[in-house]
Structures are given as structure tokens and as C-alpha cells.
Write a sequence for this structure.
């Protein structure tokens, strides 16, 4: 009887401690910006932070230099009502998002702020910085999170997305996460919910340890100069595979995308063959997308590619092989020659206004 009472009291105490820990959560979001604007993926990280606790203090960390950084900070302060503070690290060391200085910055801000969680998105920016920062803080990061069920319980895909694994973080603070932006869509923010803006504070960089800064250097940025939407956040994605046979033929995909106002994607095989740059690769080792409409032409449906697009709302596949694995996940499938189907679509679709 006494042991049962003791267990009951301990259980109540554990629940109270867990509830208190959840209520007192504070999260640092590593924000990515470009041209004075906050990237949409970073807003998804803020949405993910809200899933940790109902009363979670969310701070956004921006780094860079010049007027574009200050403009991005002003937009960050009003980008989401959940943001309670914007931290700005203004220095030439952060002119480019290199991993070494950013990791040192995260370590410095964490030591001063004592956050319970640090979150970044699972893009090249977050994957480059967060593991290095976690090593400096001597913690193990939880990567590719698609669902948050509390302050320390998360769901992440394994086996190229064929299974979901629930993990509980039992390490020391902070709990560091990378989240898939497609799993945490940003809902429309009503006019009533918009705030006057979170306070903007400058990070004191006088104590920043520069011993390991400078081991890598920025060379150049290679990107396509196009008016098409960003692949990671596009509403429609048109993807081509190796069956297109050449870079010249891949232009059919680009023309179709222009008519639909869509982003262009590619399989790893198409990228490896040199048809398009690797920034357009969709899949486990490329970008993870979840558009409203995903159109796949000449895509066989390899496991690593399906891992990057199977969360799309509607999937349309065109392939000559009726047994291609892509048809197993497609909502609409057409067994046919893409060299006949695409020209017919281009002819019948109206021009984008």
C-alpha cells in the first residue's frame, strides 16, 4: 500500500515537472534570409517551434552584414505573431552563410540565452550549420523531424521515408532539431493576429571565438536566373527524369513549367547526366517537396526520389513502362511516350497570364 502511494506521488511529481518544462520552453530559430526577406522555410521552423509548447518563447537569429540584414530583421520582427525577439549578428564574418562562423555564433547565443531548443530547417543551410553547432555544444541533434509530439518527442522518417520512427530526446539542453519545412506549412496570418513587431537586439560579438573561423572560404554562388517559383515552396512542380535523354530535350519540361507557373525539378539520374544543375534535384539527397500538384515525366520512381515528393497533394505520372514504381504512388497515371504527351500538353494549355 505504501509503495503504491509512493509511486502515485512520484507519478504526479513527474507530470508536474514535465508540464513545467513544457511551459517554460524557449526556442532559438536559425533564420535564413536573402535580399532583405526571410525565406519561407524559416517561417516553417517558427511553426514547428509552436508545436513544442503552447507557451513557447521563440527567438529568431539572423546573421549577415549591411542594409539587407537590417531589412530582413525588420521583416522578421513582423513575419509571425509567435516571434518574441529577433537577434541580429551584424559582421563581415557572416556575409556568406559558412558553417564555421555560424556554428560559433549559435554556440555563443546559446550560452548567453540558455534556450531549451534550437531549430533549423532540413535544407542545405540547416544541415550545414546545425550538426557542427551541436558538436560544439556537446549534444546530439535530431534530424529531419516531420512531427513534434511534445518538448522531447519527435517523429522522423527512416529507410528513405518508408517508415516513421518516434524518438525521445533524453540528452542535455539544448535539444537541437532540423525540421522538414513541408511538414510544417505556414497558415495564413489574419490581420488581427499580426503584432506591432518583436524587439530587435544586436548580438554582442566581442567574445566570439574566432579560432576556427576561416578554415573554409566562400568562392561563388551558382544559381539559375529565372522567374520561376522556388522549388522548395512552389505550388506546382514539373519534374523530368533520365528518359528525356538530353539537356536539350529537358527544355520541354521548362516550357511546360512556364505555362503552368510551376517550378522545375529533376531526378538524380537526370542531374548526374548533366541535363540540369543539382539544385533542381528532388529526392532524399536533394530537395524535399510537397506541392499541391506534382507532375513526373519519364520518372521511374526510385526509392530515394519518392522520399522527396510522395507527400505531394496530387501526383501525376507519365511513363512508357506500365510497371514503373512511380505509378504506385501516383493519383493519376498515363502510360505513354513523354515526347508525344508533353508537346500535346504545350499545344492545348493556354499561355500563362
Amino acid at each position: 500500500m505504501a509503495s503504491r502511494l509512493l509511486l502515485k506521488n512520484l507519478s504526479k511529481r513527474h507530470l508536474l515537472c514535465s508540464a513545467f518544462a513544457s511551459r517554460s520552453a524557449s526556442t532559438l530559430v536559425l533564420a535564413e534570409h536573402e535580399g532583405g526577406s526571410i525565406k519561407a522555410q524559416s517561417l516553417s521552423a517558427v511553426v514547428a517551434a509552436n508545436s513544442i509548447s503552447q507557451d513557447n518563447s521563440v527567438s529568431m537569429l539572423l546573421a549577415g552584414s549591411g542594409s539587407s540584414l537590417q531589412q530582413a530583421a525588420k521583416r522578421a520582427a513582423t513575419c509571425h505573431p509567435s516571434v518574441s525577439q529577433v537577434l541580429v549578428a551584424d559582421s563581415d564574418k557572416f556575409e556568406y552563410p559558412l558553417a564555421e562562423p555560424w556554428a560559433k555564433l549559435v554556440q555563443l547565443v546559446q550560452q548567453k540565452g540558455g534556450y531549451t531548443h534550437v531549430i533549423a530547417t532540413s535544407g542545405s543551410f540547416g544541415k550545414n550549420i546545425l550538426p557542427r553547432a551541436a558538436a560544439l555544444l556537446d549534444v546530439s541533434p535530431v534530424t529531419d523531424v516531420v512531427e513534434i509530439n511534445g518538448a522531447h518527442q519527435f517523429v522522423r522518417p527512416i529507410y528513405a521515408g518508408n517508415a516513421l520512427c518516434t524518438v525521445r530526446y533524453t540528452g542535455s539542453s539544448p535539444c537541437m532539431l532540423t525540421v522538414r519545412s513541408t511538414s510544417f506549412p505556414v497558415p495564413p496570418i489574419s490581420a488581427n493576429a499580426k503584432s506591432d513587431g518583436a524587439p530587435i537586439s544586436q548580438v554582442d560579438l566581442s567574445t566570439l571565438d574566432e579560432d576556427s573561423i576561416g578554415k573554409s572560404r566562400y568562392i561563388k554562388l551558382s544559381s539559375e536566373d529565372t522567374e520561376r517559383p522556388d522549388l522548395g515552396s512552389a505550388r506546382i512542380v514539373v519534374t523530368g527524369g533520365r528518359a528525356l535523354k538530353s539537356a536539350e530535350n529537358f527544355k520541354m519540361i521548362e516550357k511546360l513549367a512556364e505555362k503552368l507557373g510551376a517550378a522545375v525539378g529533376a531526378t538524380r539520374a537526370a542531374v548526374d547526366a548533366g541535363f540540369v544543375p543539382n539544385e533542381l534535384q528532388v529526392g532524399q539527397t536533394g530537395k524535399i517537396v510537397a506541392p499541391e500538384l506534382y507532375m513526373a515525366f519519364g520518372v521511374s520512381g526510385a526509392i530515394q526520389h519518392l522520399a522527396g515528393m510522395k507527400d505531394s497533394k496530387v501526383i501525376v505520372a507519365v511513363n512508357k513502362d506500365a510497371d514503373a514504381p512511380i505509378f504506385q504512388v501516383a493519383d493519376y497515371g498515363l502510360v505513354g511516350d513523354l515526347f508525344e504527351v508533353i508537346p500535346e500538353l504545350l499545344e492545348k494549355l493556354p499561355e500563362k497570364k
User: Anything to note?
Assistant: DSSP finds nine helices and 17 strands in the chain.
